Amino acid sequence: MKRVLRAKPLPVSLVMLVALAIWLWPRPSQMDWRLAQEVAPLPLLSQMMQDNLSPTFPVDPGQMQMCKVQVAGQRQPLYLVDSRVEGREMQPLCGAIGCAFFAYIPQNTDFQRVLATYLNPHVPPGRSLIEPTITVEHGLPRLVVNQLSAEGLQQYTLGFNGQAYEIQQIDTLAGS
Questions:
Q1: Side-chain half-sphere exposure of 170, counting CA atoms within 13 A
Q2: Which domain of life is it from (predicted)?
């Protein structure tokens, strides 16, 4: 005698509960890149100018792109800065290896630069250049950076060590 098992339809309330759990599950904040002048406090714009710009480069740091990152468990906001200026043909903070990216956190009445690096802004479709994770170390989220290399897509995991971000892990993703 052959037994046939039939699946019973799930109750609608269970389906809705699972959908709600997936929707509420902690995930990285969506990256909302906007003009720095719309996001940054004025002292941060001054700090960016002092730290990264030269009087010979007539660049308004308020025209750079910025994202304010705040994930659950994070002690203070993290300001990510993409130095590229929209609409400019010549990008003074870009070169052969990429464009300058910075990150700042509030410190007393000033801001502390916790990341200064060059990144190639070109990544495959569907990939973000830089994304915060929900893992928080020393009060700030880990960051995942995607970069194209000769071997394929490399994913760098950066963690905050209490003073600055540093590379914790490098993964090469095949077929990306």
A1: 9
A2: Bacteria
